[in-house]
């Protein structure tokens, strides 16, 4: 790996305290914090359409969560995030001061889960994680007699309840705003997600 | 049918496929005739004596050796083994295990390979506890203890344990998943003799069931209750009452939903605790500003037996001085959830003269590690975890911290060290200063990163470790490594049993060196390294002696793995596909292979192909 001396100069201030290293930025973990032009921080706020390449809420969307992630992966990303590296256990997040835990309900799953929104930097990370978490529930439902077509998968629309009690589609607002306003998540079966994307109160009941 | 035939059908459960060493010590004829006579004959007396003697043998390795002496010893050993350890749940079936060992009281079972912890394996790969639970229920109704690691346990399984085993006393679940608070509720409510419930780094789903309230009323036998990994609110009043009626409670580890004020109340109830996990170690949001703070120092001072302290999940460092009274007695301190600085650590660590185990975050920096080195002369195990696990150029700990530890903590036996930079010099220094090292795991988080001072690969550092640390059994390598590092490991790592490799090596030779050179190798996990089929072939002589081999994102092909599968019928060769791979791709994403007496498992999911 080439040495990155230029970066080192820019990252430390006089006191040796590395404030910039701990500053939150938008962007995937593992991305370099400073670009070669030395000025603009990578991951400073971009237009929302650039950060998310998810086709949520489209009428003709016949896509599982995983596929939406593939879409995002194809868009230019400055550094590939390596799965499972460094080898620190995922949910043993250590030393994090803030935790933003929200409950996640999936239609048809008997149990709620919780995720900490603070550990993700983007919608695609959140959705991958949810997909991992709930694939087993899909299978469990299969064993519990509910007819779920494993080949085609079931289509879920990720929705969330915001501070005002409104149900919104995940992906409508910039990531950070979402993290601040999200109170709980619900993965709704697409068949039930009619008329979403509007800020009015939904006709369906809240999570079970 | 001769007894020798029977012997070959059920080899030892440690699965050492060594040549049959059984000597026939039944030359005087016991067992070959007279099935209808129950009278005592000389060999029966011998067996009775043997039985009494073998009861004292506890080490499973000793027992495995004893079982190989002859048929008689095999039989008696099987009768007297009360603790059954199975390192890979797929190596042997529940039926086979229960047929051989008929008087088991404790079961220790391990499932998924370790790399599954890092999202390298899709969920639902397997390792289900369920078939074991059912088999145990029939074979060992007197079972008292179950210890599971990386297994999938369902709520139904927990119910089975509580309902079908009347004397069940101890449940320890490490890195398990698949169950929730409703399962816990059923388990604790029905398990009347429960002494130990330890949930360690497990994922417990929140079914919003108040499981703490489900412990039966009346005096409880609880000695250990560990639930710090449970990410759900708990009913504190119920917990308080439970602790109050558990006079034998010695170990209590709370989750982060227990505030420091609540901790205080529990400590006052249970000053006899030896192991304490403090929960959040911060006040709850509801606590009023003007409220009188309890005397935390007094509460800690009253715990005269406290030797192990952990928790600090959402620490407010202002409260740290409360633990001063117990520092002098502590042998184990876990700060790995506490984002504290060197200055916050120093007043604590300077009092911890007896500390043997220390887990901490790298937020303490090299300076904090120097403070540890200055005081903790008896330190045996150190783990330094990253606050920010990303690949970066600068990190708070480096070779400076490692060097300091090596100079101050000469009795070190086990180290896990995450850092952004490391020099060969510091690693070499540790290899010389700490000759007792048994476990050396260094994770330089930047992949392929060389020694920043010399620009050299890290070969010499790890080479020195295997050369100088003669007791080394576990090694994890990182940084820029050429084949030379593996040559060193093959030449000198004669006792190495577990080896973890990531982003290392230049060619097949590296893997060859290890497979040909390390006779004790049992667990080998490799990711993202340029090792191919030829390297895999070089281990054919050894795979039956190993528990498993894991290779992901290497250069293996399907036909290469197929060759291995054909050559070794007692090996299960699993090819695990990730989401975007096609079934018939020749390139293998993940290979996971392990010896087994049972052949291909029947519960493999669709993304697993068994060759």
UniProtKB/TrEMBL annotation, chain A:
Any Pfam family matching the protein: AUX_IAA
The entry's keywords: Auxin signaling pathway, Nucleus, Repressor, Transcription, Transcription regulation
Species of the source: Gossypium mustelinum (Cotton)
UniProt record similarity statement: Belongs to the Aux/IAA family.
Record's protein name: Auxin-responsive protein
InterPro entries named in the record: AUX/IAA_dom, AUX_IAA, PB1-like
Residue span(s) of domain PB1: 99-190
Biological process terms in GO annotation: auxin-activated signaling pathway; regulation of DNA-templated transcription
Record's subunit section: Homodimers and heterodimers.
Subcellular location: Nucleus
The keyword Phosphoprotein is annotated on this UniProt entry: no
TrEMBL record, chain B:
Domain Transport inhibitor response: 103-148
Coiled-coil stretches: none
UniProt keywords, alphabetically: Auxin signaling pathway, Nucleus, Ubl conjugation pathway
CDD domains given in the database record: F-box_AtTIR1-like
Domain COI1 F-box, first and last residues per copy: 43-82
Protein name (record): F-box domain-containing protein
Keyword hit for Thylakoid: no
Top-level taxon of origin: Eukaryota
SUPFAM superfamilies xref list: F-box domain, RNI-like
GO biological process: auxin-activated signaling pathway; SCF-dependent proteasomal ubiquitin-dependent protein catabolic process
GO cellular component annotations of the record: nucleus; SCF ubiquitin ligase complex
Keyword Nucleus set for record: yes
Involved pathway(s): Protein modification; protein ubiquitination
Localization: Nucleus
One Pfam family linked to the record: F-box_5
Quaternary data: Part of a SCF (SKP1-cullin-F-box) protein ligase complex. May interact with auxin and auxin-responsive proteins.
């Amino acid at each position: 790996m080439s040495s990155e001396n230029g970066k080192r100069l820019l990252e430390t201030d006089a006191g040796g305290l590395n404030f910039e290293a701990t500053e939150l930025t938008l962007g995937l973990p593992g991305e370099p914090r400073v670009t070669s032009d030395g000025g603009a921080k990578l991951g400073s706020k971009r237009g929302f359409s650039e950060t998310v390449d998810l086709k949520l809420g489209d009428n003709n969307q016949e896509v599982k969560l995983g596929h939406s992630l593939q879409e995002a992966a194809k868009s230019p990303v400055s550094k590939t995030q390596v799965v499972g590296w460094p080898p620190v256990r995922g949910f043993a997040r250590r030393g994090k001061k803030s935790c933003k835990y929200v409950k996640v309900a999936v239609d048809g799953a008997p149990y709620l889960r919780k995720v900490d929104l603070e550990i993700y930097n983007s919608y695609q990370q959140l959705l991958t994680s949810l997909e991992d978490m709930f694939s087993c529930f899909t299978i469990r439902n299969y064993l519990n007699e509910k007819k779920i077509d494993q080949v085609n998968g079931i289509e879920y629309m990720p929705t969330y309840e915001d501070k005002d009690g409104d149900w919104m589609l995940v992906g409508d607002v910039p990531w950070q705003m979402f993290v601040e306003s999200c109170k709980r998540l619900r993965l709704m079966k697409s068949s039930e997600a009619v008329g979403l994307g509007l800020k009015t109160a939904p006709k369906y009941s809240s999570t079970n | 049918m001769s007894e020798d035939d029977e012997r070959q059908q059920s080899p030892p459960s440690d699965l050492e496929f060594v040549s049959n060493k059984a000597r026939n010590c039944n030359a005087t004829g016991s067992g070959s005739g007279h099935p209808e006579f129950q009278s005592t004959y000389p060999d029966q007396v011998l067996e009775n004596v043997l039985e009494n003697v073998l009861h004292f043998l506890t080490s499973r390795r000793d027992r495995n050796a004893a079982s190989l002496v002859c048929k008689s010893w095999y039989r008696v050993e099987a009768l007297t083994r009360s603790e059954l350890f199975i390192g890979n749940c797929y190596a042997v079936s529940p039926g086979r295990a229960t047929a051989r060992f008929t008087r088991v009281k404790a079961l220790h079972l391990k499932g998924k390979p370790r790399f599954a912890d890092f999202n390298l394996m899709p969920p639902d790969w397997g390792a289900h506890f369920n078939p074991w639970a059912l088999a145990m229920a029939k074979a060992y109704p007197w079972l008292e203890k179950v210890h599971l690691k990386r297994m999938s346990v369902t709520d139904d399984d927990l119910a089975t344990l509580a309902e079908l085993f009347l004397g069940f006393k101890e449940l320890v679940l490490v890195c398990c998943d698949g169950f929730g608070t409703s399962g816990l509720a059923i388990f604790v409510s029905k398990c009347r003799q429960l002494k130990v419930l330890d949930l360690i780094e497990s994922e417990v789903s929140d079914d919003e069931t108040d499981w703490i309230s489900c412990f039966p009323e009346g005096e409880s036998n609880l000695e250990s209750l560990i639930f710090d990994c449970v990410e759900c609110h708990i009913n504190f009043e119920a917990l308080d009452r439970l602790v109050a009626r558990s006079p034998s409670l010695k170990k209590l580890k709370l989750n982060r939903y227990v505030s420091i004020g609540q901790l205080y109340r529990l400590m006052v109830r249970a000053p006899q605790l030896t192991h304490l996990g403090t929960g959040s170690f911060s006040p709850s949001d509801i606590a009023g500003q003007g409220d009188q703070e309890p005397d935390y120092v007094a509460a800690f001072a009253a715990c005269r037996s406290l030797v192990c302290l952990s928790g600090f999940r959402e620490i407010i460092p202002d409260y740290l001085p409360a633990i001063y009274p117990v520092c002098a007695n502590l042998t184990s301190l876990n700060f790995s959830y506490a984002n504290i600085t060197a200055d916050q650590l120093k007043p604590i660590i300077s009092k911890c003269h007896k500390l043997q185990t220390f887990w901490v975050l790298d937020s303490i920096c090299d300076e904090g590690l120097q403070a540890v080195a200055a005081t903790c002369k008896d330190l045996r195990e150190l783990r330094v975890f990253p606050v920010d696990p990303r690949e970066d150029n600068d990190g708070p700990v480096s070779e400076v911290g490692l060097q300091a530890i090596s100079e101050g903590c000469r009795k070190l036996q086990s180290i896990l060290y995450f850092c952004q930079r490391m020099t060969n010099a510091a690693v070499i220094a540790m290899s010389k200063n700490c000759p007792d090292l048994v476990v050396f795991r260094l994770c330089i988080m930047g992949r392929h990163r060389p020694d920043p001072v010399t620009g050299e690969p890290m070969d010499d550092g790890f080479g020195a470790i295997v050369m100088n640390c003669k007791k080394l059994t576990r090694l994890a390598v990182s940084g820029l490594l050429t084949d030379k590092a593996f040559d060193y490991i093959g030449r000198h790592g004669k006792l190495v049993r577990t080896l973890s490799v990531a982003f290392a090596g230049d060619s097949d030779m590296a893997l060859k060196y290890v497979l040909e050179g390390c006779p004790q190798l049992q667990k080998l996990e490799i990711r993202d390294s340029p090792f191919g089929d030829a390297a895999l072939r070089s281990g054919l002589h050894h795979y039956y002696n190993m528990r498993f081999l894991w290779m992901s994102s290497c250069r293996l092909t399907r036909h290469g793995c197929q060759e291995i599968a054909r050559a070794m019928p007692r090996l299960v060769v699993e090819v695990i596909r990730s989401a975007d791979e096609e079934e018939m791709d020749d390139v293998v994403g993940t290979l996971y292979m392990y010896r087994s007496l049972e052949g291909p498992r029947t519960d493999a999911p669709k993304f697993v192909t068994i060759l």
